[in-house]
């Protein structure tokens, strides 16, 4: 028999938070465009987007590197935290995704603050390294098998005190399941473990939004 308390629990914690912070019109437009274009509907949740904006603002970041643009939802949230002269560099494998994201960032008023680099992220990261580029904030939300490599590059490209945020670190529970050992699961586990133990970082893993890991590069 269900208890009265259990019966009154009508939503999950994530649902409850997202009811408090619904999509704004600008971001809802992005979600609808992603759906219309048949793209994966994996953009961050509304409250998660607010968290990204707050993290960028709190860190005082001026240069952000985003790995994985999709339709531009997270890009808008990141840019909302930047100062007027701040810049977002976004890496995206697919040109059509980057073009759609670019249109959404332009519509949101961030056209002059975003640069897209198209192709395999590892190639773009190596090019940024060769150019001597550095960043204050990293948002990693792309192919999971390369997460450990993306982390290595982030550490090389990071300014002292930079923040690194990694998305989907639970992989919908697969990371926590010892019976799941596919390449993506093993890569994300390694990513989590390195961030948790690397002495160059101060970090935590939030048990929300499918696992959001946050790390600060020591000065």
Explain what the structure shows.
The structure is a single chain. The protein has 219 residues and is α/β, with parallel strands linked by helices. It is built from 9 helices and 7 strands; from the N terminus they run ααααβαβαβαβαβαββ. It has helices spanning 4-8, 13-20, 25-36, 46-59, 73-79, 95-107, 121-130, 147-157, 183-197, and strands at residues 63-67, 87-92, 114-118, 135-140, 158-166, 201-206, 212-217. The protein has a 7-stranded mixed beta sheet with strand order 3-2-1-4-5-7-6, with helices on both faces. Helix 4 (46-59) packs parallel to helix 5 and helix 7 (121-130) packs parallel to helix 8. It is globular, with a radius of gyration of 18 Å. The model has no long low-confidence stretch (mean pLDDT 92).
The order of strands across the largest sheet is 3-2-1-4-5-7-6
Residue ranges: pLDDT <50 for 5 or more in a row?
none
Biggest β-sheet strands, sense, barrel:
7 strands, mixed
Radius of gyration equals 18 Å
The termini sit apart by 55 Å
Oligomer: single chain
Shape estimate: globular
Question: Secondary-structure element sequence?
Answer: HHHHEHEHEHEHEHEE
Strand content: 15-25%
**Amount of helix:** 40-55%
Give me the number of helical elements. 9
Number of strands: 7
């Amino acid at each position: 028999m269900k208890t009265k308390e259990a019966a009154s629990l009508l939503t999950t914690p994530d649902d409850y938070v997202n009811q408090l912070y619904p999509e704004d019109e600008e971001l809802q437009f992005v979600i609808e465009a992603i759906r219309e274009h048949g793209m994966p509907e994996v953009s961050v949740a509304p409250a998660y987007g607010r968290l990204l904006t707050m993290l960028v603002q709190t860190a005082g970041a001026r240069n952000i590197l985003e790995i994985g643009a999709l339709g531009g939802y997270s890009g808008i949230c990141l840019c909302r935290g930047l100062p007027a002269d701040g810049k977002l560099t976004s890496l995206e494998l697919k040109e059509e995704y980057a073009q759609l994201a670019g249109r959404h960032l332009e519509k949101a008023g961030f056209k002059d603050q975003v640069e897209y680099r198209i192709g395999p992220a590892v190639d773009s990261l190596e090019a940024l390294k060769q150019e001597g580029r550095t960043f204050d904030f990293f948002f990693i939300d792309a192919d999971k098998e390369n997460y450990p490599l993306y982390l290595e590059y982030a550490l090389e490209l990071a300014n002292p005190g930079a923040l690194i945020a990694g998305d989907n670190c639970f992989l919908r529970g697969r990371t926590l399941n010892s019976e799941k050992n596919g390449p993506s699961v093993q890569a994300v586990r390694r990513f989590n473990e390195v961030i948790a133990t690397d002495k160059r970082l101060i970090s935590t893993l939030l048990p929300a939004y499918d696992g959001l890991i946050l790390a600060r590069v020591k000065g």
